[in-house]
Design goal:
With 177 residues, this protein is α+β, with helices and mostly antiparallel strands. Helices cover 30% and strands 31% of the residues. It contains four helices and ten strands; from the N terminus they run αββββββαββαββα. The protein has helices at 12-27, 92-103, 125-136, 164-176; strands at residues 31-35, 40-45, 51-56, 64-68, 71-80, 84-86, 107-114, 119-124, 142-144, 151-153. A hairpin with a 4-residue loop joins β7 (107-114) and β8 (119-124).
């Protein structure tokens, strides 16, 4: 299997869980969410027509985009092995897109999976933006798990789904207050 820059399967477990969740939500007519493919240009292919070398055409925006009960949503999924999340894993163009998305009436958020703790969290865009601004203002280039305030646990032991609609519902409720 080909790997991209040595990061091969990083995030694939989380992505599989989200994709299964999206299929379940679509089946139940709760949401229609699509994975946004990373745009690449193949450079070399092997005899089986598998891409062996490629480059990224452009920066992708977010991992997922769609609609939940008439509400446009976009989100990005991030894995973290330690209790400290490096903000270098979030890119400026993603923050900019999500900020513009929310300005248009959509809801942007992150799904964080702390693999060491085996916990998945719904993180509001405003929470991530707070840490992003802190970094821009010369502060830490990461945040610690215990610093999180606007997050909602969305995983359940023994399940292979991430219940992000629960986090979204609480996020919407909070915004309406």
């Amino acid at each position: 299997m080909a790997t991209w820059g040595g990061h091969g399967l990083r995030g694939s477990t989380l992505e599989d869980m989200i994709n299964r969740t999206n299929e379940a939500y679509r089946f139940k007519k709760l949401a229609l969410i699509q994975k946004i493919p990373t745009p690449i240009t193949p450079v070399e292919m092997n005899r089986q027509r598998q891409i062996t070398l490629a480059y990224f055409d452009q920066k992708s925006t977010v991992d997922y985009i769609g609609v939940v009960q008439n509400i446009p949503v976009c989100f990005d999924a991030k894995e973290c092995a330690a209790e400290t999340f490096p903000l270098q894993n979030v890119h400026e163009h993603q923050i900019s897109f999500m900020k513009d998305f929310e300005a248009q009436g959509g809801i942007a958020f992150f799904i964080l999976y702390y693999t060491q703790k085996d916990i998945m969290l719904y993180m509001t865009f405003s929470e991530m933006y707070r840490f992003w601004k802190r970094t821009e203002d010369g502060g830490r280039k990461s945040f610690r798990y215990e610093e999180l305030t606007e997050v909602i646990p969305i995983s359940r032991k023994g399940e292979f789904l991430c219940h992000y609609l629960e986090g979204l519902a609480k996020d919407i409720e909070k915004r309406e207050m």
